[in-house]
Design brief:
With about 60 residues, this protein is largely without helices or strands. The protein has a domain of about 30 residues: N-terminal domain of TfIIb (Single Sheet). The chain is built from one helix and three strands, in the order H-E-E-E. Strands 1-2-3 form a three-stranded antiparallel beta sheet, with no helix packed on it.
């Protein structure tokens, strides 16, 4: 069994991600059978985190 640089060449043969049935993004992992974007295959709920969204501070005006 080899590891390191020679093993990295084997990664380029097939497709890691395909288009997701639920969200339509190119994030469905073929081997792990779940979508990295929406969580399809792992949970029934849509994958969503608070840190993904930009927080808007109320009462602060910014000049562009």
């Amino acid at each position: 069994m080899t590891k390191g640089t020679p093993s990295m060449g084997k990664r380029s043969r097939g497709k890691t991600h395909i288009r997701c049935r639920r969200c339509g993004r190119h994030s469905y992992n073929v081997r792990k059978k779940y979508c990295a974007a929406c969580g399809f295959g792992r949970s029934k709920r849509i994958r969503e985190y608070k840190w993904e969204k930009k927080r808007v501070i109320a009462g602060v005006k910014r000049s562009i």
